Amino acid sequence: MLPFNKPYFTGNETKYIEDAVSSGKISGNGDYTKKCQAFFEQHYGFKKCLLTTSCTDALEMAAILIDIQPGDEVIMPSYTFVSTANAFVLRGAKIVFADSRKDHPNMDENAIEGLITTKTKAIVPVHYAGVACEMDTIMEIAKKHNIYVIEDAAQAIDSYYIGKDNIRRPLGSIGHMAAFSFHETKNIISGEGGLLAINDEEFINRAEIIWEKGTNRSSFFRGEVDKYGWVDIGSSFLPSEIIAAFLWAQLENLKQIQTVRKNHWEGYFDKLSDWAGANQIELPKVPEYATNNGHMFYLVCNSLEQRTKLLGYLKQNRILAVFHYISLHTSPFYAPKHEGGELPETDRFTDTLVRLPLFYELNPDEVIEALLKF
Ligand SMILES: *Cc1c(COP(=O)(O)O)cnc(C)c1O
């Protein structure tokens, strides 16, 4: 069976892990952690970066940092992974779902303002498939209503937004904070892993404290205080040096990984265009304000029936393709709590979207050949 995903190892992962082990320090916030964090700060201009054990954890940190209280409202797409919502639900927030765009699973920026109330505390745009949400509009709305923007950039490493001012900004550098994932299904991996990128300096000091179990241990190690103790709430959000060492091997090869993945993506796009048109299947859209980072190649079928047929056909041809997300407003956990209206575009993507295999060592022609006979 051709797998849907296969983690790619650059070759240096175990070497750097051995190095971390032989250095005698394998808990968090050591040399490899600092190297990775500095890489992201220099490469993408995020003001402060903290590695986390997952994107889920980075989102949870963001929810604590903006001081989400029970009853606060947070606007996000329903077409997303559970962690986007869970991080805020854990702090008692009510989730208010915005519908997807017609041409893209990303949240419809024009659906946001009508959802804002006096209780709205944050907007959480999810850059689905690594393709930017329309951030100029989202940031304008946030500024006007004095609310925070937390980017769920789990899939969005090395992707950009081109605003009205024509400046290319890395995704994750636009909102007050952003969360990235290094889960093995993402472009750059460490098994489990994540990153909190902080762009608003107001949050930096407290972020370090929450990251280190609510203690001022980071200040202590910098010699700013002579003993450290419990100063705030917090948790153990930082990964061990073993994870950071693995991640460093990936970051050293970021350019090459991105080039190969984008080639696969373009191969799919070019060779499937005519076929898709003939079958009334949509290929992924990258709006003119966004870039493609080769994270995901998906098809949007014309009906649930067509998708079921297509998935069955691929399985017969020993190719594993998958669908997702079951939108959160219809989930067993949140459907009873969902008070908003219907989300027809979200429902459509839930019923019709198919993700094709996309990983470094893939030969996309294997999948393309099978599809052309569908
Ligand atoms: C993968 C993903 C997450 C969760 O990332 P983890 O690192 O596994 O916690 C959150 N949001 C989105 C949109 C994702 O794709």
TrEMBL record:
UniProt GO MF annotations: dTDP-4-amino-4,6-dideoxygalactose transaminase activity; pyridoxal phosphate binding
Annotated Pfam families: DegT_DnrJ_EryC1 (PF01041)
Transmembrane segments: none
GO annotation terms (biological process): polysaccharide biosynthetic process
InterPro entries in the cross-refs: DegT/StrS_aminotransferase, PyrdxlP-dep_Trfase, PyrdxlP-dep_Trfase_major, WecE-like
SUPFAM superfamilies: PLP-dependent transferases
Keyword Zinc: no
Keyword annotations of the record: Pyridoxal phosphate
Residues annotated as the enzyme's active site: K186
Residue positions where N6-(pyridoxal phosphate)lysine is found in the record: K186
Keyword Cytoplasm appears in the UniProt entry: no
Family: Belongs to the DegT/DnrJ/EryC1 family.
Name used for this protein in its record: dTDP-4-amino-4,6-dideoxygalactose transaminase
